[in-house]
Specification:
about 350 residues; alpha/beta; 12 helices; globular
């Protein structure tokens, strides 16, 4: 693997600072990224220190977090509490111009705060079309109207890009049509291609060329293809790459999720995800599983990806520069007003 290519495994860390065994792990050439969770966070300053530790031992890594807003926001202490995306969608229904402007500002604010702590990306936005069908999506989605999801997500992406962050759309081709939670089981969606293309696929088709990354869902659509999306050559190559023309990074959703177990053990899951076309695979909250995948990738000498570098942050912003930034102050005031 040459220096210009990025390792293709993203893993997590145990605590709020690097443990003794973690620097060597992060330096493995097959590791290309780190994702932080709530357990890695005590304060904003501590997050900055942890990211600095990571950068000191492995400066090339892509550092990520799930900072969507609402109930999926890992960084809270010292950060702006963002609304659930459905609140922004609802605002756009009442006042389209004001709603889209606030959404764009929220995208910018989320991305700017994450970048100011030294990270590269938040896995956002959710492009699922849902209101209250899915047990795991729900108010994480902007709306249950495909065109509104597209319009509001577009504004959010624009804001993220203005801050210097590439956006990642999830969960392709749509997690909003079923109740089941893929963290806990392997969902099956029996809708056909026409039903999906008229609803769930609409935002992905419209925004594919605006996204730096896309994360597929751990869902099987047996009427369309027998394989779960994240392990499917049909979905990732024929649809996402060929039909939609997407040329960014395909991130697997976490291979530790129960929805991924349809593919077998960790090695089988990693192999199938890579063969299907995932550029980077995530193994989180199971260190033993991550080590199994790492051993497999090392033995197979899995080649790196030249796409992943496109997700690295494009600006360098310190918290002192951001803290009293007029756009941040104004957006926080708008959010406070919306919640009052």
């Amino acid at each position: 693997m040459t220096q210009s290519l990025q390792g293709r495994l993203m893993l997590d860390l145990a605590g709020t600072s690097l443990q003794d065994d973690e620097p060597a792990l992060l330096c493995n050439p097959q590791v290309g990224g780190v994702i932080l969770f709530a357990r890695n966070v005590e304060s904003r300053q501590q997050v900055e220190a942890l990211v600095a530790e990571i950068r000191a031992v492995a400066p090339q890594l892509l550092i990520a977090v799930d900072q969507e807003g609402g109930r999926v926001q890992r960084f809270k202490q010292g950060f702006t509490l963002l609304p659930a995306m459905q609140q922004l969608g609802n605002l756009c229904l009442k006042d389209r111009d004001a709603g889209l402007q606030l959404t764009r500002d929220c995208g910018w604010l989320m991305a700017a705060e994450v970048i100011a702590c030294g990270l590269d990306i938040s896995f956002a936005p959710v492009l699922d079309v849902d209101r209250d069908t899915s047990s795991i999506i729900g108010d994480r989605a902007f709306s249950d109207q495909p065109q509104l999801v597209t319009d509001v997500a577009s504004a959010f992406i624009e804001g993220m890009n203005e801050a210097g962050m590439a956006a990642t759309g999830k969960h392709f081709p749509g997690h909003g049509g079923i109740f089941a939670d893929s963290h806990l089981e392997a969902p099956i969606d029996h809708r056909d291609w026409t039903q999906l293309s008229e609803r769930d696929l609409v935002p992905f088709v419209a925004l594919a060329n605006r996204l730096g990354g896309i994360m597929p869902a751990h869902i099987t659509f047996p009427t369309i293809d027998p394989d779960s999306v994240g392990f499917s050559h049909f979905w990732l190559q024929q649809v996402l790459r060929d039909k939609l023309g997407f040329d960014g990074v395909i991130f697997s959703d976490d291979l530790a999720m129960k929805g991924a177990d349809v593919a077998g053990g960790y090695v089988q899951k990693a192999q199938l995800a890579l063969e299907a076309g995932c550029d980077m695979i995530l193994v989180c909250n199971d260190r033993q599983g991550a080590l199994e995948v790492l051993d497999y990738m090392t033995e197979q000498q899995v080649s790196g990806s030249d796409r992943i570098k496109g997700m690295l942050k494009r600006t360098w912003l310190s918290w002192s520069q951001l803290e009293n930034h007029p756009r941040r102050v104004a957006t926080m005031a708008q959010l406070q007003k919306m919640n009052s």
